[in-house]
Amino acid sequence: MTILVADVGGTNARLALARDGTLDSKTIRRYRNREHAAFYDVVMLYLQEMQPDGIERCCVALAGPTTPTKGKLTNHYWEFEAARLNEASGAGQSLLINDLTALGYSLAGLDTTMARHVCGTTARGHGNGQSLVVGMGTGFNVCPVKALPSEGVACLEAEAGHAKLDADLRAWLYERIDPDAAQFSTVEECLAGPGMSRLYGAYSRTGAMEGHEIVAACIEDEVPQAQTFMRFFTRLTGLVCQQLTLQYMPLGGLYLAGSVGRGAMSCGYIEEFEGGLRSGEKFRDIVAEIPVYVIEDDCAPLIGCTEAAKAMGTV
């Protein structure tokens, strides 16, 4: 069986083929969205280049709200319909999923080169069969993943980024950036890329910087305020993740994803993250055992699309 898979963000679309249930990394191609009127044009261009024998199924992950048959990008005008994907690809079945849902489906296929262990137990797959993907990029969201009794997983949709910070966390924030803390009332306003930039300005009093600039300045030891801020930001990430672990109990693993998540875990302040994750007395021992990973391989959404497409015939 040949499956067409795609990971579509606001700027780029990456397409690949999966054969016999395995992603073929040699078939990955990237296209700039702005150079094409519609995603269906990209599909036809890709298939002209690759010349596969035939496409049986198609699964596309979108950076935006989706249903199984319709979707729309948050930061680009493209809209998607499963029926039109069938026409463009020749597939018998097409499925649309959110990009974070794709990461949820990818977990079973990630090896140690794709997901780096950060802290907690190193025994993967233990516990209650529940895992959680925490996406920290342009936006913030989570995907709870539950292993099914027979085989496969169920990946749930959420909008956790728009949840309000709890009272204790807001008080902690107010102590450090008052009086500017009022503008950071939701999780996304703190831990997504744009929020991270504004948070740096409020914390350092030196003006906003882009997230990648903050991380680079911290790692390269160029700006002292960047290092101080990243200690604070990594602790904040741990505190938010503590709340998420209590809400979802992902004893099978907590997986950080996205450019902001990878950046926060690359600055060398893991002890700050662990301190936030394990703070307080409630369930401290349980939280301390939860394995935490960083998804570092950009192929993960395509792997997830492959797994979701394989499951189409069983649901």
Number of strands: 13
Fold-level CATH name of the largest domain: Hexokinase, domain 1
Order of helices and strands: EEEHEEEHEHEEEEHHHHHEHHHEH
CATH class membership of the largest domain = Alpha Beta
Classify the secondary structure makeup into a structural class: alpha/beta
Roughly what percent helix? Answer: 25-40%
Low-pLDDT parts are none
Outline type: globular
What kind of sheet is the major sheet? 6 strands, mixed
Strand order of the largest sheet: 8-13-12-9-10-11
Mean pLDDT score: 91
| DSSP helical segment count | 12
Number of domains: 2
Named at the architecture level, the CATH assignment of the largest domain is 3-Layer(aba) Sandwich
Radius of gyration: 20 Å
Describe the structure.
- The chain is α/β, with parallel strands linked by helices and 315 residues long.
- It has twelve helices and 13 strands.
- It has helices at residues 39-50, 82-89, 99-106, 167-177, 188-191, 193-204, 211-219, 224-248, 259-265, 270-277, 284-289, 300-311, and strands at 2-8, 12-19, 22-32, 57-62, 70-72, 79-81, 93-98, 115-119, 130-136, 140-147, 153-155, 253-257, 292-295.
- The strands form three sheets. The protein has a six-stranded mixed beta sheet, with helices on both faces.
- A hairpin with a 2-residue loop joins strand 2 (12-19) and strand 3 (22-32).
- Helix 8 runs parallel beside helix 10.
- The longest helix has 25 residues, at 224-248.
- The mean pLDDT is 91.
